[in-house]
Amino acid sequence: MKLTNAEIASTVGALNKLTGMKWPVTTSLEIVKLAGKLQVPLSEMGIVRQGLVRTYGITVEKDGMGTTIKSDIKGKEAENVLKYMAEVGKLGEIVTEVKVGKKIKLPRKVEGKPLQIEPSILIALEKFIEVA
After folding, report:
1. How far is it, in rounded angstroms, from Cα 48 to Cα 53?
2. What is the mean pLDDT of residues 18-40?
3. Whole domain around residue 59: which residue ranges?
4. Quick one: which of 5, 6, 31, 62 has the fewest CB in 10 Å?
5. How many domains, the chain?
6. What is the mean pLDDT of the chain?
7. Roughly what angle, to the nearest 10 degrees, separates helices 25-56 and 5-19?
8. pLDDT tens digits for 40-65?
9. Among 29, 33, 38, which Cα is nearest to 10's?
10. Model pTM greater than 0.90?
11. What is the pLDDT of residue 94?
């Protein structure tokens, strides 16, 4: 399956939310396998992004949501942030081939309760899952 790097990043984020939920063992294994297949390209994107941070001298801050660009930037650093963001945009558009197999079938009920998943997760995973 051909995916953009941006799609891979959003898919991994959504998969991380699924891994925190209870599933039948076969569904759990399928989710973990898919996450594993996407980790390599995600890691490669992270390495390139770190290189861009160094190249453009961007100051980043870590918070509860991850790493963000420092908010009080001025002058040359502000110009470099725009260049950095343009490069990150190009990185997100690059297409990667990932072998994923068939869609993961999520059960309609888990432990006797109706399946409840946020729509944003379903949207991010629509290429990879179906509710059976």
Report:
1. 9
2. 92
3. 2-131
4. 62
5. 1
6. 87
7. 130
8. 999 999 999 989 988 988 776 666 55
9. 38
10. no
11. 96
129-131/113-114 β-pairing = unpaired
- CA 42 to CA 14: how far, in whole Å? 13
Residues in the chain: 132
Query: Token digits for 112?
Result: 């006797």
Question: Chain centroid to CA 74: how far?
Answer: 30
Pair of tokens at residue 69: 């660009």
Closest CA to 128 of 101, 110, 91: 101
Listed in sequence order, the DSSP H helices in the chain are 5-19, 25-56, 75-93, 119-125
CB atoms within 10 A of CB 19: 11
Query: Do β-strands 104-106 and 129-131 pair in parallel, antiparallel, or remain unpaired?
Result: parallel
Q: Identify residue 43 by its one-letter amino acid code.
A: S
